[in-house]
Amino acid sequence: MTHVILVPGFWLNGDSWATVTTALEAAGYHVEALTLPGKESRTADRSAVRLADHVAAVVERIDAAPERVVLVGHSGGGSIISGAADARPDKVERAIYVDTGPFGDGAVINDELPVESDDVPFPGWDAFEEPELVDMTPQVRQRFEEIAIPEPAGVARDPQHVSDDRRFAVPSTVIACSMTSVVLETLMADDHPYMRELAAMQDRSIVDLPTGHWPQLTKPAELAAEIVGIVEGRGAAGQVALG
Predict the structure, then answer these.
(1) In sequence order, what are the beta bridge partners of 30?
(2) What pLDDT does residue 235 have?
(3) Residue 92 main-chain phi, psi, to 5 deg
(4) Domain boundaries of the chain, sorted by first residue
(5) From which residue to which does any coiled coil extend (predicted)?
(6) Pairwise CA distance, residues 146 & 167, whole Å
(7) Which residues contact 53 (CB under 8 A, 6 or more apart)?
(8) What DSSP letter does each residue of 162-212 carry, written as one string?
């Protein structure tokens, strides 16, 4: 049975994957949607939580899995699953990056977001560009605001640490939402710093899923279908092979 570990991005916990989880389980997968340290509640103590703690939480679940795993990371969760793939390259069957990508050594997820004490609170919708907000209806925005949890500042600002070259052999797919595959290919061709890690992957691809930055909320059924297609090697409309 395919074992899928879902890692949320900033301000979200495992419950944000609920509809995707149900669809993947219906497809016969064993699914873990993680709530990472400091994200248990709005009142959780986040003062000592670092990026390494989030990576370690994913590695712990990889080690507990009875077989190789598929890692799915959304947004800031992309850095977390790439760190976990670096730590356990032989146990990761595939890494799937949802509107994000793997970060190389020394990269920071986002050190520009405002920090309040030890937290990075949700900054409000004005902080995002229009492509990120596609399909974010008033109802979806309200739901997001109801479940949003501050991000630990250490996770947002700590540098990524990866060092095992075997990570480049882990098959990697980007599900491109707010930025299309064409844009991402152009950035790679231009040697954009944030695309170098993906460009170095030996088996990489991009699948377009046109929507905003939070497809697990705006198009969860379509996102689940893309994940299944990627895992089962069926491909999808809009897939661009890069490796």
Answers:
(1) 3
(2) 55
(3) -105, 115
(4) 3-241
(5) none
(6) 36
(7) 36, 37, 38, 154, 155
(8) ---GGGGGS-EEEEESSS-HHHHHHHHHTT-GGGHHHHT-SSEEEEE--S-
Helix (H) or strand (E) holding 215, with range, is: helix 215-218
Which of 233, 238, 173 is closest to 205 using CA atoms? 173
Q: Which two tokens stand for residue 162?
A: 């990866």
Q: Which pairing describes strands 3-7 and 30-33: parallel, antiparallel, or unpaired?
A: parallel
* Summary mean pLDDT of the chain: 95
- Express each pLDDT in 139-180 by its tens digit: 999 999 999 999 999 999 999 999 999 999 999 999 999 999
Contacts of 219 (CB under 8 A, 6+ apart): 135, 209, 211
User: What is the DSSP track for 131-146?
Assistant: GGGTT--HHHHHHHHH
88 CB-contact burial (10 Å; exposed 0-12 / middle 13-18 / buried 19+)? buried
Residue 237 in this model has a pLDDT that exceeds 60 = no
Q: What are the φ and ψ backbone dihedral angles of 141, each rounded to 5 degrees?
A: -60, -40
Q: How is domain 3-241 classified at the CATH fold level?
A: Rossmann fold (3.40.50)
Q: Could you identify the residue written with the tokens 């103590």?
A: 45
Whether 75 contacts 10, CB under 8 Å: yes
CA 153 to CA 198: how far, in whole Å?
Answer: 25
Answer yes or no: are the C-beta atoms of 201 and 232 closer than 8 Å: no
Residue 94: beta bridge partners? 70
Tokens of 154: 């250490």
Hunting for tokens 């299944």 — which residue is that? Answer: 228
